[in-house]
Amino acid sequence: MATKIITSEDLSTFKTELLQDIKNLLTDHAKIGFKKHYRTSEVLKLLQISSTTLKTLKVNGTLPYSKIGGTCFYKAEDIQHMLEDNRVD
């Protein structure tokens, strides 16, 4: 097995990339975090779930929603309640 040497430049590059990734994540959550209502795409990103999982949550009544035209909206409060109600200790 070959040995690979990591230089301080490698570590510096890694640090810069890692910090940028963290900034991007925080920015994404900050954009979503202060809204009262979310669209489907925002809920998928916020909860990191598939569209199939979200559809299941809607169909079985776990996550209430409102539909205006063809767009579904979810209350931030309902999302929070769903997470709290389904918490596993």
Read across the widest sheet, the strand sequence of neighbours is 1-3-2
Average pLDDT taken over every residue: 89
- The gyration radius over C-alpha positions equals 19 Å
CATH topology: Arc Repressor Mutant, subunit A
Low-confidence stretches: none
CATH class: Mainly Alpha
Q: What is the H-and-E element order?
A: HEHHEEH
How far apart, in Å, are the first and last alpha carbons? 43 Å
Largest sheet: 3 strands, antiparallel
What structural category characterises the helix and strand content?
alpha+beta
Strand content: 5-15%
CATH architecture: Orthogonal Bundle
In total, the number of domains comes to: 1
- Per DSSP E runs of 2 or more residues, the count of β-strands stands at 3
The number of helical runs is 4
What is the percent of helical residues? 55-70%
Tertiary shape? elongated
Describe the secondary-structure layout.
Blueprint lengths: L7 H26 L3 E3 H8 L3 H9 L6 E3 L2 E5 H10 L4
Antiparallel strand pairs: 1-3, 2-3
Write a structural description.
GO terms for molecular function: DNA binding. Keywords: DNA-binding. This is DNA-binding protein. With 89 residues, this protein is α+β, with helices and mostly antiparallel strands. The chain has one domain (9-85): Arc Repressor Mutant, subunit A (Orthogonal Bundle), CATH 1.10.10. Helix content is 60%, strand content 12%. It is built from four helices and three strands, in the order αβααββα. It has helices at 8-33, 40-47, 51-59, 76-85; strands spanning 37-39, 66-68, 71-75. Strands 1-3-2 form a three-stranded antiparallel beta sheet. A hairpin with a 2-residue loop joins β2 and β3 (71-75). The radius of gyration is 19 Å and the shape is elongated. It starts with 7 loop residues before the first helix and ends with a helix. The mean pLDDT is 89.
